[in-house]
């Protein structure tokens, strides 16, 4: 019994640590700044970090297969710039949004194919994807383009009031992240695709020898991540009502940090999208604490995220070592 | 028969592809932008695009030197850009003649004076970068964190640290002796070229005239086997990352001296990408193993020749990103193709060409 309990703690240890740290961070923040005790402050975490959650889900899948995708920020920026430019010319949102999603998926599939067929390391290929997408965004427009489309404005400015909470609201695009999370949980735990993904991350060679479609799954995972990046780009452009190639610089690092904090091993095969959600919530909490403080400067966010990543990698390797001993 | 051997030796030489790429770009320039090759002499200094390639490319060449050793050990250093920003910030803060407790007026800020002697500034910037490299090396070799992640941490936090040092400001430097590193001339050529040459020669002597180079390649090809043959793989990795930090610090010094300012957000932006590109173009595999310092320096030169040619053609700097991405793609495809070619030739060979470094079959095995 104790052995089984020990094993299950070992198994869910990283996730439980993440949740505990999130709760602790939030409670400390709420003690320091009473404004954080309002429910709205909690929903703001989702409003402000919705796009991070969307990318984080895609990134978790990629990291689960043992790869990494550094192109997410570029695809996001390209989506905002391209959709802003297309909307400005006069295309309707009903045409632009699906087109952007197809474009993101296509970029992801392309990168995945290069990784699989040419056997190049994922990070160098996706680094190229980052360059390429940002470069394209700059070719579309060297300056920020504002969006005046009525549908985008409607999405951006209509609050949905939450039940059970007084005066707490979210916006329509905020719902995209949590909905995608449900889809991702279904994909990861209840489909063949998800199981092959985990198998692939644990050991690509044995997965291949067992007859799993390794190449197809890998390419599909990168395609899914491209789709997520484009979706995040749409959410981002709705919330800012603008498109620009310089949006979300360095977001790939924030996302990777969040995924690591969520207990996903960077070597692949171990982790969950639920952990990623809490990783992103931790980052969001740190940012809000810094904002509520007001005197701490923005660069502390970066230093904190870096330090937290380090701590979590330490925790992960600690758990991995203990697991081996058991 | 002799001819085929001759051509194969040329084709398999690590300098071949990078020199070909350079020749293609220069050939394009000769046809479309002949003014690219013009070199003027003013006040005894040489001016011209080709000199600019050397001078502007000097930081990248330095970073590429350090990156080569790191990649040869099978790792990667993503923090070079951030380390450059840290060292530049360090230099700017030490120069700035207005310490925090004094009332800062614009007149004090823009004075051609320094707070610290130049020698100490140089030592402090180099020490800051070397410490960053040491930190990376410790994380990778002692804490056993994957290089990609270990250096990613400093890549995120490093820019924050640089901003912390400069207090979030872009510090403009007005102290003229500091400009010597990026803008000075010795015998008509920019100072930065001499610095790069000196570092390259020291590094070359260090890796080729001592066993260190062999150790580095051995660690990159198979760390376990290296460990069992009695070489401290840990210390070899530590050395490579520390050297990379040192090179980035020097690059940051030259860059901040060239642009006369320190900006935590933009000093050395995208240098990690360019440096990896330079190293890959130089024929050093990302999976570690064989490396060539000269080829990496040439790779950096190719990148800057390409960049400056595009500037001369009037392509905006930001839009150039996409062009460079296509360049990376081409290089990647070239090399992955070349790898296939090499495999086949290895199988065809009855006798191994070199007893020490065999073309590594271990490359596709999962890393430990």
From TrEMBL, chain A:
| One of the record's GO molecular function terms | hydrolase activity
State the coiled-coil residue ranges: none
List the GO cellular component terms: plasma membrane
UniProt cross-references to PANTHER family, sorted A to Z: ABC TRANSPORTER PERMEASE PROTEIN YPHD-RELATED-RELATED (PTHR32196), INNER MEMBRANE ABC TRANSPORTER PERMEASE PROTEIN YJFF (PTHR32196:SF63)
What EC number(s) does the entry state? 3.6.3.17
Could you tell me the membrane topology recorded for this protein? Multi-pass membrane protein
Q: What protein name is recorded for this chain?
A: Monosaccharide-transporting ATPase
What coarse category fits the chief subcellular location reported for this protein?
Answer: membrane
Where in the cell is the protein located? Cell membrane
Q: Which UniProt keywords apply?
A: Cell membrane, Hydrolase, Membrane, Transmembrane, Transmembrane helix
Q: Transmembrane stretches, by residue range?
A: 12-33, 45-64, 70-87, 94-118, 124-147, 168-189, 219-243, 255-279, 299-320
Q: Does the keyword Lyase apply?
A: no
InterPro entries to which the protein is assigned, alphabetical: ABC_transp_permease (IPR001851)
Q: Which domain of life is it from?
A: Bacteria
Pfam families with a match to the protein in the record = BPD_transp_2
UniProt keyword Secreted, yes or no: no
From TrEMBL, chain B:
**Protein name per UniProt:** Monosaccharide-transporting ATPase
- The transmembrane residues are 15-33, 53-71, 78-98, 118-140, 147-165, 185-207, 293-311, 317-335
Which species is the source of this protein?
Answer: Herpetosiphon aurantiacus (strain ATCC 23779 / DSM 785 / 114-95)
- Principal cellular location given in the protein's record: membrane
Q: Name one GO molecular function term.
A: transmembrane transporter activity
Q: Does the keyword Hydrolase apply?
A: yes
**Might you give the EC number(s) for this enzyme?**
3.6.3.17
Q: Where in the cell is it found?
A: Cell membrane
Q: Does the keyword Ribosomal protein apply?
A: no
Q: What class of enzyme is it?
A: hydrolase
Q: According to Swiss-Prot or TrEMBL, what is its membrane topology?
A: Multi-pass membrane protein
Q: Which Gene Ontology terms of cellular component type are present? A: plasma membrane
The record, for InterPro entries, names:
ABC_transp_permease
The record's keywords, sorted A to Z, are: Cell membrane, Hydrolase, Membrane, Transmembrane, Transmembrane helix
